[in-house]
Amino acid sequence: MSLLEVTDLSAGYGMVPVLRGISLHVEAGEAVVVLGANGAGKTTTLRAISAMLASTGTIRFDGVGMQRSSPDRMVRAGISHVPQGRGTIVDLTVEENLMIGAYVRTDDEVESDLARWFGVFPRLEERRNQVAGSMSGGEQQMLAIARAFMSRPRLILLDEPSLGLAPLVTREVFDRVAESVTETGTAVLLVEQNANLALDFATRGYVLESGSIVGEGSADELRGDESIRRAYLGG
Amino acid sequence: MSGSVLEEPPTVRPGVVPSGPFGGRVSWRWIGWIGAVIVLIVTPHVLDAFWTGKVTGWVCLAVAAQGLNLLTGYNGQISAGHGALYGLGAYTCAIWVDHFDGQFLGGVALAAIVSFAAGLLIGLPALRIKGLYLALVTLAVATLFPDLVKQLEGITGGQQGLKMSEPVPYRGTVVQQNVKWVAPEWTGLADDQWRFYVFAVIALACFALTANLVRSRMGRAMVAIRDNEVAAETNGVPVARVKVVTFGLSSALAGVGGALFALWQTQVFPLSFTLTASLYFLVAVVLGGPSSVIGPAIGAISYGLFEDVLSKKVLPERWQSLTPLILGVLLVVLMQLAPGGTVGMVQTLRRRRLARRASGVLQPAGQTVDQATDPATPDDPATDDPVLDDPATPDPTND
Amino acid sequence: MSEFFQFVVIGLGNGAVYAMVGMGLVVIYRSTGVLNFSQGEIAMFSTFIVWSAHEAGLPLPLALVVGMIAGAAIGAVLFRIAVQPLGDSKANPLPVVIATIGLFLAVNASASLVWGSESKPFEKLFGLGALEIGSVSIDYQKIGALAVLAVEVLAFQLLFNRTKLGLAMRSVASNPESSALAGVPVNRVLLAGWGLAAAIGAVAGTFTAPNFGIDANLMLNTLVFAFAAIALGGFDSLIGAVVGGLIVGVLTDVAPRYIDAIDKMPLAPAFLLIVAVLLFRPEGLFGTRRVQRV
């Protein structure tokens, strides 16, 4: 049984349909990417899964149907969503952001987790009492990711982490995420326009076009595919 | 506030079914106007003097409500101070008739002018104070108005109010007598009927002018500003001018309504124009539905029906507070079930029928003016946390 | 001169009440982006509950606690049924504003229906005594109001900076969407905010009622003063509400004694203040500047 199983998912905004019955799955510990151009529906997919958006179809997490859930309940179930544009809480400090990330936890290891993630992202520790809104884009991205990890999720939804970041910073972000994911065994569903980086990071992928899945395969397969290369990898 | 314009554009677009019976050859709009005129002509003959008088009062409300609808429904500037402008019109007319022995209709015209000017005056600072804050300021104006009237006792008669009286020859001298509506001989009408017709004509004129305005370039500018002010500005709309003028026009209508009110009552008191009055206008506009010309009429009539028929006739003294209670609850409920008011509900139903007929034709992505995107649309399955489920704010990258 | 000082203290005492209502308004404004026009009425209704509890035999301080709890419950329920279903109010505030106006009418009318329209006398929480310093006499009630205000400010500081709920409230106020994604039950947090504001309202009403007795129109003027207070202080600043409230209190109490015209129109200075601040410095003394998002 897959960790996340999405079947025939459709969603949209008001009368505007965006997703037209897509299906995908993510196994425990797996890193899966959804590639697609602007407007394909990638972000909508993630928003539908984390219950930010109403949708039709089935979403099963760990075998349990999650159709009429709400974002905070999804976090409790074990899904953490790092939204596009990072979504850090700009008026809170770095440390407070991380503590908010741990809101649903009732165990007593929150402090030690805090220390652990400060270890992975030393720059965050340096700025632990700084207001999040005053940090650079890359730092905020790392904060957003660390915050997502704070809830000890089993699946992280990562929405276009490269957006607005310089290539070097993006590389660093991806490296850290890869590290963290291997260490914690968290599954990742990544949505990205930057196919090169994404296919290095993920083991499997889907291609989304105008709300429908038009391609699927392992990272190598996708990288080798002619049409995908032309469309998303610059030939 | 996302409302929709009632009237469909006259050109028929492919795939859009023309609206109206007899295959669309006669539009609903014309039927509406003709129907309204017929109803107005017939009313004072069907009702007795007492009820004709009551309905006359509703006409005043309808005119004023139309003004608020122009401002809030079409132009998106929320005002909780409409009652003050209504009162301004009423007092202007009353003072004209009483102190200056002026003609009734002159009083109405003067009230329109004075209220228009006041509206312009308020509209100017309103340019810098938007949305929520404007509601706040207008709320304060509404609360302040009765005190102001009482303060200017000299002209307004203070707390006791102002009875409109005119000099009348009596037994060789001249006495002051309360003004009265007297039907001219040639009409063969009773006084109350004549009064109703005069009011109805004025109201119809106001409504017709408003309908025209709303469909003109100015009207489109108003709506554009309501939906996205910055975008409107970049598109060349003279935002400041339109907003200020809208305030002026809206106030002028309130003034006319107020003047009619004064002429109807033949006396005015400061306590007729408190904050509650302003809020009731808001109720009327919301009830009828913003941004349609007929909405305010429906709202005003509904309120009048409720107040005069239900409340005063049926309920004993102690239960008088039931009116504001029910109106308040109505506002709350309306926001959830039908933010477009009664007219909006009809619109949504009609649109949904059209959409079902035209299914398969994809709507243009992004925002459209007549958005079916209010959070309460039953189309969208409700989630637990509608904080995030507002389809009116599409994803930034339109993904 | 001592007379002036006395007036100032009275003004501060009144201002404390405006500050209390103002703080409630700020809490709701920060979390929902909306000015709760029914705040005063909820406060009035809660104060009536205090009155009833006292009439039933409870000593006033205990009755106040009862009123605060009942008020909090009422505030929470009203949020749940009237505001929560309307969705994200920061994105679309107009329906919520109208809903709160509806609540204004409904709650005000309900109070009249339940308790009648006659004004009822209300006891002073801090008694009738006064502190005598030289030729100046300061009512214990006024001092009490200021003391209670100080306690409330302290309580807020503790809540927001040292509790999980407080952190959640600040988080939601800053970014409800991200907060939800982090697992914060946003609606429950907003609910708490409304409950809190209502509870403070009960306290404010308890200090207002002794002046002219309690009736359904108890808080009508106070609401306008509270709005003026937060306009002056900055709509999203708790400190602003306190400072603004005290200033408005002093202004509206001292000015009428020296300027006759204002005496007849007690709301005028508050109104002019609101307009002036919104025109020239919309963020007030302590508020944050808003950037217009295109």
SS field, number of helical segments of chain B: 14
Oligomer: heterotrimer
Gyration radius of chain A (Cα, Å) is 17 Å
Distance between the termini of chain B: 25 Å
Overall structural class of chain A, as computed from helix and strand content, comes to alpha/beta
Give the CATH architecture of chain A.
3-Layer(aba) Sandwich
- Share of helix of chain A, binned: 25-40%
Explain what the structure shows.
In chain A, about 40% of the residues lie in helices and about 25% in strands. Chain A has helices at about 40-50, 70-75, 95-100, 110-120, 120-125, 135-150, 165-185, 195-200, 220-225, 225-230, and strands at about 5-15, 15-25, 30-35, 55-60, 65, 80, 155-160, 185-190, 205-210, 210-220. Chain B has about 400 residues and is mostly helical. Chain B has one domain (about 30-350): ABC transporter involved in vitamin B12 uptake, BtuC (Orthogonal Bundle), CATH 1.10.3470. In chain B, the strands form two sheets. In chain B, strands 1-4 form a two-stranded antiparallel ribbon. Chain B starts with about 25 loop residues before the first helix and ends in a 42-residue tail after the last helix. Mean pLDDT of chain B is about 75; it is low at about 1-20 and about 360-399. Chain C is mainly α and about 290 residues long. Chain C has a domain at about 25-220. Chain C has twelve helices and two strands, in the order H-H-H-H-E-E-H-H-H-H-H-H-H-H. A two-stranded antiparallel ribbon of chain C has the order 1-2. Chain C starts with a helix and ends in a 14-residue tail after the last helix. The model of chain C has no long low-confidence stretch (mean pLDDT about 90). The chains are: A alpha/beta (about 240), B mainly alpha (about 400), C mainly alpha (about 290). Chains in contact: A-B, A-C, B-C. Chains B and C meet through helix 5, helix 11 and helix 13 of B and helix 4, helix 7, helix 9 and helix 12 of C.
SSE blueprint and pairings:
The complex is a heterotrimer of chains A (235), B (399) and C (294).
Chain A (H helix, E strand, L loop, with lengths): L3 E10 L2 E11 L4 E5 L6 H8 L5 E7 L2 E2 L5 H7 L1 E4 L11 H8 L8 H11 L1 H5 L10 H13 L5 E5 L7 H18 L2 E6 L2 H7 L2 E6 L2 E7 H6 L1 H7 L3
Helix pairs in contact in A: 3-6, 6-7
Chain B lengths: L27 H19 L2 H26 L7 H18 L4 H23 L4 H21 L1 H4 L5 E2 L1 E6 L2 E6 L12 H25 L1 H11 L1 H6 L4 H27 L1 E2 L6 H14 L6 H20 L7 H16 L3 H17 L42
Antiparallel strand pairs in B: 1-4, 2-3
Helix pairs in contact in B: 1-7, 2-7, 2-10, 2-11, 2-12, 3-4, 3-5, 3-10, 4-10, 7-8, 7-10, 8-10, 11-12, 11-13, 11-14
Chain C lengths: L1 H31 L6 H17 L4 H24 L9 H23 L14 E4 L2 E4 H23 L1 H11 L1 H6 L4 H27 L7 H14 L4 H21 L1 H5 L3 H13 L14
Antiparallel strand pairs in C: 1-2
Helix pairs in contact in C: 1-5, 1-6, 1-8, 1-9, 1-10, 2-3, 2-4, 2-8, 3-8, 5-6, 6-8, 9-10, 9-12
